[in-house]
Amino acid sequence: MSYVRKEIDAEEIRRQQALCAQIFDRVTADGRRPLAMVDTYGCQQNEADSEKLRGYLAEMGYSFTEDEFQADVIVVNTCAVREHAEMRVLGNVGALNHTKKNKPDQIVAVCGCMVQQEHMAEKIKRSYPVVDLVFGPHELWRFPELLLRVMTGGKRVFATQKDAGAVAEGIPQRRDGSVKAWLSIMYGCNNFCTYCVVPYVRGRERSRRPEDVVAEARELVAAGYKDITLLGQNVNSYGKDLDCGVDFADLLRMVNDIPGDFLIRFMTSHPKDATEKLFRTMAACEKCAHHIHLPVQSGSDRVLKAMNRSYDREKYLEEVRVARAYMPDLVLTTDIIVGFPGETDEDFADTLRLCEQVRFDAMFTFIYSKRVGTPAASMPDPYTRADKQRHFDMLTETANRISGEKHREYEGRTLRVLVDGETGKVPYNLSSRTNGGRLVHLKGDPALIGRFADVKITASNTWALYGELAEA
To answer: Which of 6, 182, 337, 443 has its CA at 20 to 30 Å from residue 35's CA atom?
Structure first.
């Protein structure tokens, strides 16, 4: 599909910020600071989008709450990747009838990927009158304009037109936390895997300009963030639409060259675009975490072809071999879909064999979820939910066993970790992450949060490591 890159003019963003000032005057006229709540579902990109929503809301004069009964504005930022997420959203949105009865002037907005699907936007319009505003990911940059229309027009507003998407710079952000930060480097996807709705709701691949990414990374480092994750539906295709001679590996090196003590992570990589240059650059950049999330989805060549993944089993295994040759300490995680239409016992056995061969540090496993409008939704599928559950249980058992075995290999070692928060539990009251992203619970002073520390690993289980501060 052809796509002409579109950028939102800076003047348009300034106009949105002027509208924020209008809303500020309107909602603070009685001297009270109104409250907003942003409820986020789905991936890290959605989390990053919610930081922009909160940024706009802060400029409008809102403080924030987690109590839907206290909120004057509720924004529900949705996910469309699996049916379960959509059902959770609809259930929670329906429950807001109670909050609106308690607070009749409350404004409820639903945004994000779920409502970019025409049938879901129509469902909300027809069955959820509690919702005042609906807008898709492409309209986030003009959230102030849409919200003001609701406030002044007295009518529901729906903005979910089909769009290939654009890039908008300069949207204010209110970040969640002070140690870790999301940094979007691109949006959309061109891959059209047959099971996936993302290209239909997020639009075509479009990269932010490298100078804008690096400038934002510099701001994050200056603000004290220690763990910066570069985000994109497929970060490996970064720069293909820019014609500026900078690919993802080049961008990694540019961010790595920013002075400071911090870690660079990224999500997500598509195996069809993962290159030796990327692995070589990761190994050479001292701030780049030796972790790559490389979704394989299936170990069966037949299923991979039906999924339109554009690689086969051998290509994937070769990439793993090359990556580990450059980074022997690489932490490798993956996504796997169980029960893709027509997946046989033999196909699933191929997946199990691949998992035993690669020995992923962690696997994120899902039972196939039919998505309206995707090619896989109309594929014949003679297998029952019970068949798929049986395979899923076998896969999770394998994943947990391998993860536990790999975690035990850390016991007795001393690792550098970034302390990132409190667990609320004793005696291991702090949480932290290794360079490879492994979760470590440890005992220590909360003053360590936001700092790197050397930790001796004393115990482990399937899901985490446990340790104590190493003696100086």
So the answer is: 182
Residues 149, 21 share a domain: yes
Distances (CA, A) of 363 to 83, 102, 132, 297, 343: 20, 43, 39, 10, 19
Domain region containing 435: 414-469
Q: What is the pTM of this model?
A: 0.96
> Strand pairing partners for 430?
422, 442
User: Residue 154, exposed/middle/buried by CB under 10 A (0-12, 13-18, 19+)?
Assistant: exposed
- pLDDT tens-digit profile of 98-136? 999 999 999 999 999 999 999 999 999 999 999 999 999
Write down how long the chain is: 472
Q: What angle in degrees, to the nearest 10, is found between the helix axes of 313-326 and 276-284?
A: 20
Specify whether the CB–CB gap between 256 and 403 falls below 8 A.
Answer: no
Are 237 and 371 members of one domain?
no
Pick the closest to residue 132 from 206, 61, 71, 41 (CA basis): 71
Q: How far apart are CA 127 and CA 91, in angstroms?
A: 12
What is the bridge-based pairing of β-strands 414-422 and 452-460?
Answer: antiparallel
